Amino acid sequence: MLSRRTRSAAALLAAAVALTACASQPTTSAAPAGTASTGTASAAAAPAPSASAASSPLTITDPWVKTTKKGMTAAFGTLVNNTDTDVVVVSGASPLSPEIELHEVVDSGGKMVMRPKEGGFTVPARGTHPLQPGGDHIMLMGVTEEVKPGAQVAFTLTLKDGSTLEFTAVGKEFAGAKEDYQPGMDMGDDKDGHTGEGDR
């Protein structure tokens, strides 16, 4: 029969072996059940691009349209390119006008005249392109409705890549920019009583 001392020593040896085995196993810490779901929720909550940003590489700031009784008028603002490549505006449309052209103002024999801008408006990468009286502008012809101060006029610009920019311009009185039309431009009856952008 084993002595009491022998039995005690054996018990201590067994306990030591058990502790050594536990210590040799890798320690793992399970993440709380809520941790993974919290991470997923954060990713899902990340802001998505707005519809306007996704649909067009351009935005426009401070758009306005010159008040007029009828005939012709023009829209202005600043085109902003939010991309790393040049963007070209090739055409425009508005419920206010059956015919819209992209115009520029040039010096012709010492006289400032308006004409369609060949190739449209190019907005440089990460840059801007001003539309202003006496410079590039959106020309509306055949306007039959009066544009009063504060009027809301919808526009759609089409870009070279086929995307579009939609915006609303506000009616604003303006008496400047009295350019003529380039000789040879057929403006029809709209030219009567009109000089520059919009009726005086």
Automatic annotation (TrEMBL):
Ranges where the record places region Disordered: 176-200
Compositionally biased tracts (Basic and acidic residues): 188-200
Coiled-coil features, chain-numbered ranges: none
Membrane-spanning parts: none
Keywords linked to the UniProt accession: Signal
Highest taxon of the lineage: Bacteria
Signal peptide from the UniProt entry: 1-23
Xref: SUPFAM superfamilies: DR1885-like metal-binding protein
PROSITE patterns in the record: PROKAR_LIPOPROTEIN
PANTHER family according to UniProt: BLR7088 PROTEIN (PTHR36302), COPPER CHAPERONE PCU(A)C (PTHR36302:SF1)
Protein name (record): Copper chaperone PCu(A)C
Species of the source: Planobispora rosea
